């Protein structure tokens, strides 16, 4: 089995944090988004992984090669973002080997027994019921089989949303369908969508089944990042202790962080080389190298190497910024 992770997005809704980092490297619940995804994928033992990168893709490649030195991985650059199907098509030379293929979108963290999807006897799509399916690809199901797929329907006939997890018994069938979509210029909202390619496969007689997932976490905007951080920390295990400080679980604190005379938690993620002195931090994410001194913060994202001094506020501070609160 091969695995493809499309991670070429710019992450405009997460600015200022994505001015200097690609979204896949933003820190949540103890590690970057891409690590949450890769750790699950690597556990399945794929023959290789293909990462589709674009904006600041060199930073993703540098991180992955350092953190996963034994992983057989190819990087494919998508210069123009023209939809997921277009992105997958660009991997044809390294991924189209006719073997099973797993695709996991690079901006969504999924919690489920992922190993069971590769046991499916048909093509399988990760799916979960949602209150408002108009924002997602939607699957219509009859007798346990998917009969129709619609990308972001204005009037959905189903509330079963696709979550960005796809398993194909034969990658060749998918690539043939994507070629058909592109050759015939079939687009949805101006982009080549994987849902259109899969619908063509269904029309040609291929069998798809929904694969129910337990939890599905969005990392598309700051409030969603914080919500994801809360939920993932609650599902974690272990509580770090810091001499001279009060730690209220759940939290994640890097062993290289410096915490002095603080109250940390609940729902706080503190990355490597972070410095926090004489402060109260709740419901927040502090990225690598951030510094918080003599402050109380809540519901905040503090970017890499940002500095916050004094005061009580809710903050969304980008990389290398300095904020003094009086």
Description:
The chain has 326 residues and is an alpha/beta fold. It has 2 domains: 2-218, Spore Coat Polysaccharide Biosynthesis Protein SpsA, Chain A (Alpha-Beta Complex); 237-324, Hexapeptide repeat proteins (UDP N-Acetylglucosamine Acyltransferase, domain 1). The protein is 21% helix and 34% strand. The strands form 6 sheets. Strands 14, 16, 17, 19, 20, 22, 24 and 26 form an 8-stranded parallel beta sheet that branches. Strand 4, helix 2 and strand 5 form a beta-alpha-beta unit. Helix 5 packs across helix 6. The longest helix has 14 residues, at 222-235.
Oligomer state equals single chain
User: Rough shape?
Assistant: elongated
Main sheet properties? 8 strands, parallel
Structural class: alpha/beta
Q: CATH topology of the largest domain, which one? A: Spore Coat Polysaccharide Biosynthesis Protein SpsA, Chain A
DSSP helix fraction: 10-25%
Number of strands: 26
User: What is the CATH class name of the largest domain?
Assistant: Alpha Beta
Structurally, how many domains make up the residues? 2
Low-confidence region ranges: none
Q: Which range does the strand content fall in?
A: 25-35%
Number of helices in the DSSP assignment: 7
Relevant CATH superfamily of the largest domain: Spore Coat Polysaccharide Biosynthesis Protein SpsA, Chain A
What is the radius of gyration computed over CA atoms, rounded to a whole number of angstroms? 21 Å
Terminus-to-terminus distance: 56 Å
